[in-house]
Amino acid sequence: MTRAYGRPHAAAASPDVAVSRRRYAIRDHLQTLDPERDHWEIYRTTATVEFPWDLTRALELALYRTYAVPAIGALLDETGEFRLRAQKRYDDTALLLAEILDNGYDSERGRAALARMNRIHARYDISQDDYRYVLGTFVFVPVRWLERYGWRPLTGTERLASFHYYRAVGARMGIRHIPTDYAAFEAQFDAYEKEHFTFGEPQRRTAIATRELLVSWLPAPARPLAPLVRLGVHALLDEPLRGAFGFPEPPRWLPPVVDGALRARARVERLLPPRAQPSSVTRSWFVTSYPDGYRIDELGPESTKRAPGTTPGTASGAVSTTVSNGAGAP
Question: Does residue 114 fall inside a structural domain?
Answer without folding.
Answer: yes
